Amino acid sequence: MIKRIFGFSVEHPKSIILLTLIVTCLFLWQFPKIKIDTDPKHMLPTTSPVRVYNDEVDRLFSLHADTIVLGISNKEGMINTDTLKKIAFITQSILKIKGVIAQDVLSLSTVNDVIVKEDGLQVRPLLDKIPETKDELEIMRKVLYENPMLVERFISKDGKTTAVYIPIEPTANGKAIADLIRKVVKEVGPPEEYYLAGDPIARDTFGSEMFRQMGLFSPVSGVVMCIALFLMFRSSTLVFTNMAVAMISIFWSLGLLIGMGFPVHIMSSMMPVFLMAISTDTVHIFNEFYFRFKEVKDKRRAVLETMNTIAQPVFYSDLTTAVGFASLATGAIVPVKVFGLFVAFGTFVILLMSYTFVPAILMIMKESTIQKALKREDIKEDKAPGMAWLVKLGSLSLAKRSAILKFGLILIVFSVIGISRIHVNNNMVSWFKAKSEIRRSDKILNKELGGTSLAYFVLDSDKEDFIKEPSTLRYIEALQRQLEQDPLVGKTTSVADYVKHINRVLHQNDPKFEVIPDSKDEIAQYLFLMEMSARPNDLNNVVDYPFKRANIWIQLKSWDAGIMRKLIQTVKKYTLDHPLPEAKFKPAGIAYFNMVWNDEVLWGMVSSFLASLVLVLALLIFEYRSFKWGIISFIPLLATIVMIYGMVGWTGKDFDMPISVLSTLSLGMAIDFAIHFVSRFKQRYKEAPNLEEALVWTVSRPGKGIMRNAILFALGFTVMMFANLTTYITVGIFMALIMTLSSMATLIYLPALIVNFKKWLPFDGGR
């Protein structure tokens, strides 16, 4: 079947090229329909218990999943007439922005203050009138700092920073709204400084920047790879062919994804990176074609002999890569499934192009062009003077095999120790460079105020009016104090804080009464007065009206998933040490959601990756019809993965989304090299049954293709180290490391293994 496919391509090259162009245009036709989705909530299926409960909490307490935080800072202090006027103007301008939930925007000019009137409590805006005189400003300062719920939320302890909390609609774009806010604050101007932070900005800015970076670095990377390809093969036609295969696989895969109605998520945005890496497998075809053409002096015969020789290793290398990615579909996370399946589809497209488009292009090349290229390459039979060091490398691998195997073992042990040091974490804000506006704003606001990340702990009971019990409120208050001991917890707010503050206000603002009353009736009265006087959301956010449930707000000073995990353990320990039989606490909020999808995505990918390792091993055993050869071929792959993960552990790099994704690529690349090496070695050994000679030949001739493949891709992706997003920097660095390690493991370690285990391995003849 395979021979018929590339045989047809050899006989009808123009038809194959035309058909490929037509199909590619059909897939490109889908691109205008592209939809982008950066919402982490969509990383979990709609039926996920965590997602369902999170949505329930949002509805129950009138909460907003997406909130932008605008920080305003004045080195001389915020409590002055000019700055307060600016805050009021900025707030009013923000209320008019489309996509902003205006009624719930909170700032010094909209937050409520509670005062005593003859007929009870009165709730009014804190800044219903801008203070003009020194005395008025001092009164406002006093009101602010006498209310613990406002300090570190709306005003910093030093009085130099305030915050505006801007909830936005679920469909709104955080970056677009942030850009409009920037225009507003630019209009207001100095001396105040302005900082924008929050999950919607980080998420949507990343989505926008992600495509901008891909649009910038993909062409640059392509140019670098083209230059490297030309220096390798001295043929612009072969350069075009390799890049065309990469682009065809990308266009077909993304076109199918878009056409089927899937949005481009954070995961699927990295498909082009992976497909460009996998497409370099065509270098093995070009490499062998040059050798064959020099030997037979006939283009058609050279193409057919090349394909007959290369077809099987290309098939199995692409098949194992596709299986590795397709295994990601076994997880529960929809974007990960989509990513795995469509990269697998793209890999099969590359395989199809290797059997059709590549031989067709080789057939339409002028022989004079090939001859010119060969003169520059100076290829001689079974030798490659341009890469003569590969012959020496092969000989060295055999001569020093004991030392190489021992060194490899030491390196693997060292890497295993590094793996034990891996810290699993994900932080979207850290995907931006330290000097970026988002990182800088987030750092400043986390330092000066309560924090930009929000988590909830919901107290859930079946008993009506349970929250009105003094013992319940004191329990909530005690848990708040326990949580606040963590340095990354900036501010907590609950119904207990409202009750305490009302109690204080009703007792002439005496600080001694900033406590929970002893009477349930008294608490009920306070809550009723507050309910009648305040904006609905003032209490809605912290308690339900059967008073069965209460919500503790927790502002966090970091977006690290590990922080939320630590708080959950704190709550579990506290409730075990101080049982509350009639109720239980459940976590919720964006910080908790990020932790859950982080864990599920990462560990889902790890489990799928481990499953794919087993599948790849099975395919290797099937390809070679030998368990022993399957194991030997598998070792370079395993060594590469262990070393990559070991580096992650030793460098202190978090095991996050990009790293987990790259581990899948390391599988594809490392096994490709091993398949090409072992397949070509077995072919050579069958023709000339001399073990050492066959191994040196494999290192020097197919090994040239392996090295070219590795160098080509490593060079192409080093340009990504200059990106603005740390995710792309990580991709660039680790791509280069993966290619280097996997090629070296194949060309140095694998020959040493084969010789060392020659008595154990089955050979088809000779010695």
Features:
767 residues; alpha+beta; Multidrug efflux transporter AcrB transmembrane fold; four-stranded antiparallel sheet; 28 helices; 8% strand
In words, what does this structure look like?
This protein has 767 residues and is an alpha+beta fold. Among the domains are: 1-33 and 234-381, Multidrug efflux transporter AcrB transmembrane fold, CATH 1.20.1640; 49-203, no CATH class; 446-595, no CATH class. The protein is built from 28 helices and 9 strands. The protein has helices spanning 2-11, 13-28, 49-60, 81-95, 134-145, 174-188, 199-233, 236-259, 271-279, 283-296, 299-326, 334-355, 357-364, 367-377, 389-399, 401-419, 437-448, 470-483, 495-505, 520-533, 536-540, 561-577, 590-624, 627-651, 657-687, 691-700, 702-718, 726-756, and strands at residues 67-73, 112-117, 120-125, 161-167, 193-197, 453-461, 489-493, 549-556, 583-588. A 4-stranded antiparallel sheet has the order 7-8-6-9, with helices on both faces. A 3-stranded antiparallel sheet has the order 4-1-5. A hairpin with a 2-residue loop joins strand 2 (112-117) and strand 3 (120-125). Helix 2 crosses helix 13 (357-364). The longest helix is centred in the first third of the chain and has 35 residues, at 199-233. It is elongated and about 105 Å long. Mean pLDDT is 83; it is low at 379-386.
